[in-house]
Amino acid sequence: MIAHVMAGARAGGAELFFERLAIALHQAGDPVLPVIRRDPGRASRLRAAGLEPAELRFGGALDLLTRPRLARLLRRTRPRVVVAWMNRAAGMTPRGDYVLAGRLGGFYDLDYYRRCDHLIGNTRGIAEWIIRQGVPAARVHHLPNFAPDFRAANVTPAALPVPAGAKVVLALGRLHRNKAFDVLVRALPHLPGVHAVIAGEGPERPALEELARRAGVSDRLHLLGWRTDTAALLAAADLLVCPSRHEPLGNVIIEAFSAARPVVAATADGPRELITPGETGILVPLEAPAALAGGIGAVLENESLAARLAAGGRAAYEAEHAEAPVLARWRHFLATVEPV
Fold it and tell me: CATH says 2-145+322-336 is which class?
């Protein structure tokens, strides 16, 4: 059995991939125990796929019960490998008679992972950074994320609050400063007639709405809130934009590759690793609204460029980020990894 411990938020890239991986491993015939922070939505989705998650509180410093309860659960179920997803799970998962692997989706404080036998980075850059911090290379592994095959899903494009025939750029993610959606809003005055649709929620909503009002683009900025119909949103968009200031990976880029949608992204760590400029997407400098607008405009105004980028992204998806190749790498790791 493999236990996957996730103490994260209700929504987020790591949390989404945790669900995808646990379900895919289960469907491949591997015994999987998901251990999650209490979340009715996540528990329901896992149960619908045939899994039975264990739910614990995973609270803050005053939570004195989760750690011993998790220890008892792992002693009782006797997994061969435990994968602790991100800081809180790694910090609360005890050593035991199993291989403990910490999975990192960013450049996190490695003190949380001091009990781990092995560390997993979901990008090459993260894995290389872990090694530079002094962790022996034999204990560090690069295991990427996968996205569903959105092109094969043949979904109906989502209905969007934009005029018929308008050009649509889509952004996905939490409304947080790291995502730099304010840069996208500042780019809109340079893109007459283009509508920006952002699917996500978070503390930056009021600031984005005020910025759009001051920039005179309120009628072309559409904040949809949290959405789960990613494939339909991508099908309705002309391109995906990822303007993030800080983006260790960028699951949304992989999803756009899957859906064969061209991508314009800022040069944060993840997009810079995922995108080959001019082949699988367009990269622009960080914090540069005019440059972002230039990249978006170049794609929207050139159908052959858009088609080339979409095809290149789709080829990269099939080779590196489709479920089959990524799941094979994860299964090999989980079947062969040994304690140190």
Answer: alpha beta
- Structure-token pair, residue 244: 């993030």
Q: What is the pLDDT of residues 238-270, one digit of tens each?
A: 999 999 999 988 899 999 999 999 999 999 999
Kindly state the helix (H) or strand (E) to which residue 212 belongs, with its residue range: helix 205-215
The arrangement of secondary structure in 150-321, i.e. its CATH architecture, is 3-Layer(aba) Sandwich (3.40)
pLDDT per residue as tens digits for the range 64-78:
999 999 999 999 999
pTM, to two decimals: 0.88
In degrees to the nearest 10, what's the CA dihedral of 12, 14, 15, 17? 120
Burial 4-34 (b: 16+ CB within 10 A, else e): bbbbbeebebbbbbbbbbbbbbbeeebebbb
Task: Give the contacts of 103 (CB within 8 A, at least 6 positions apart).
Answer: 14, 83, 84, 85, 86, 119, 120, 122, 143
Question: Which residues, listed in sequence order, are joined to residue 33 by a DSSP beta bridge?
Answer: 3
Distance between CA atoms of residues 147 and 258, nearest Å? 7
Q: Both tokens of residue 10? A: 């209700």
